[in-house]
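Field: sequence (string)
Field: structure_tokens (string)

Example rows 1 and 2, in order.
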Amino acid sequence: MLNIIRTSLRTGRVTVPYPEQSETGACRGRPHIDPDRCDGSSTCAEVCPSGAIAVTRTASGARRWQLDLARCVFCGLCEEACPLGAIRMSADFELATRSRDDLIVGVTHVPRDTSDAREENPPAVAVGSATSAGREDLAASGNYLGSRIRSLLKRSLHIRHMAAGSDNSCDWEIAHLLNPVYDVQRFGIDFVASPRHADLLLVTGAVTRHLEPALRATYAAMPFPRLVVAVGDEACGGGVLQGSYAVAGSVDRCLPVDVYIPGDPPRPQAIIQGLLIALDRLEPKMKRVELRVDA
């Protein structure tokens, strides 16, 4: 016992300070698009393995480049294929949002002779940039999350995790939430085995036809109020399995989803951020943005 205590004192605290402090690391995050460099070509769309990038033409003749972060696997092939260097892979991981549409980033190249479209162009703004106010909200959420959960639910938040057809990458990240490094239990959050004891259903994987009835039955067994959080690109948008005969698709095709946490897989901090958003403890940073440039 003395050796254990001595080792603990020597090791010190290993739990990460997130969300009280911002974290950056070597983990790959979402792609950033530079609208001034993008010419709307389809080179990146041709190499995208999940079909997250699409290039279309509008009725006015404008070319529209669109990235669906819910389906993006963050592989980086688009960055390598872009001949103009318009796409850059970043380390941004705080992508959780309540709306599926907020995960869509678009660049529309408006012909110069289309004056009406030019006048309606919104200003080009950065997507997912962290503001000081947002960081303060995140820190406050982490500090008071445990007490607020108990005041609202009279107990800790209970999560039922269900893999509805995942490749286990997201499940490994969720398992890390319970280790000493991330220790999600410090927020009063814990995982339960029965949906009848759960307040939140955490779903991973593109829902397979075989597991769709089980997913619906699990959701039906949960008491009110109940939340659903989709974790990973497969759960959010179908990922590389989208359109397969064996899957029903993303989770929102079967259940009402309250929060989307994209990534392949999302890192544990990103899942923590999504849980905070699901509990209405902070506002998501991702907002749908349509950038317009003169072609």
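Row 2 begins here:
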Amino acid sequence: MNPKVDWFFNKNTKWQEAYSELRMIVLDCGLTEELKWGCPCYTFQNNNVVIIHGFKDYCALLFMKGVLMKDVAKILVQQTKNVQAARQIRLTGIHEILKMKATLKSYIKEAISIEKAGLKVELKKTNEYSMPEEFQIVLNDMPELKTAFKKLTPGRQRGYLLYFSSAKQSKTREVRIEKYIPQILIGKGLDD
């Protein structure tokens, strides 16, 4: 147990008991406990394997390379269509966790095996994401914006492309693009 992570387990939430049980299960599998992204993150040889986190309706084990797992019990969930590598096991309470303890441990051990084998997830390249027509027009009209966009990290570029593309109406895409032009020009991502 890492004392830096204790605050997460000690805070009063509806998942407190579930979190504590998940912590024991994960630590029993021999992983190192760290605090990353404000959540307990468990690593094998400095590689992130699984995270414990919670939401309104469930708490979860998030496997960083879950897409590579066999998912024999068919319990892994892709959070959104844009999540490429990670997969969750969603849990709704301590009773479910206790009932699934052996299965959870087997999934954690499989995730560790994936790290031991050095397997990598083939991620979609930035140029494989669709470019909204409205954004392409603006890039063509503003060479300085096109240059600034190309200088962004691939992750920041993908963030913008996904955000702009997710709007159903052209007018909404245009408004979003207009709003973020200054941010792109100074080399910032959506959430910077």
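free_text_note (row 2): The radius of gyration is 20 Å.
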